[in-house]
Amino acid sequence: MGNRQIQEAPKLRRSELEEFSKQSLLLPTVIERLYVHFYRISRSKTEDGVIDLSEFCLTIKKSETSVISERIFHMFDSNSDGVINFREFITGISAFSDNQDLLVKENIRMATIRMKEKIDLSMRIFDLKNANKIYERDLIKILSSLMQERNFLKLSKKQIKKVVKNTLSLEKAQEDENGKYWDQQSYSQMVMKTPQIFKWLSVDLENIKRENKIHRNAHKCFSV
């Protein structure tokens, strides 16, 4: 199945390009190339025009049982229907792209919108209970998985817990029956003070410039 030929992606209409560009703040030329990329991924296992978890994990070279893969997928899947459509795809990629050359020239308002999107989307990674709260134990679980999967410096759960407390002590935690947590406002304030928290979650859009290599380098567009 992995070697079968995938037909060429259809062209997006000008009106669609303009709409997607306005929404994502990505240049129309980038939207076109991302659509080719998306089209290939969405048909890699099932030809249904959307990306499911197995296709997503195949793209980023991660196991479907990976906690990080599942949470990144959940971040993209903003309507929680179990698949990623093209609108969700470009929204997530735009929010976490560090390549300013591929984005529409930003003003202060646009930069604010992108930061809000980045905060909202990233919170979905850590909010395992879908309660608009980041619980300390869930954050420790995600960070432990991240360090293990990316071969970071090995830390014990006790050490990771200390890191979490030192980092999130910037904003006072609240507590309920499930333990200590930070709500969206506290998380937003913490991120604004320490934006480097997003360094581990970046999207490399350089590869889409080489359109003829997209299908071979698909997994390189994500850094997770």
From TrEMBL:
EF-hand domain: residues covered: 64-99
Secretion signal, residue range per the UniProt entry: none
InterPro entries found in the cross-reference section: CNBL1-10, EF-hand-dom_pair, EF_Hand_1_Ca_BS, EF_hand_dom
Record's keyword terms, sorted: Calcium, Repeat
One annotated GO biological process: calcium-mediated signaling
Entry's Gene Ontology molecular function annotations: calcium ion binding; kinase binding
Protein name: EF-hand domain-containing protein
Organism (species): Stentor coeruleus
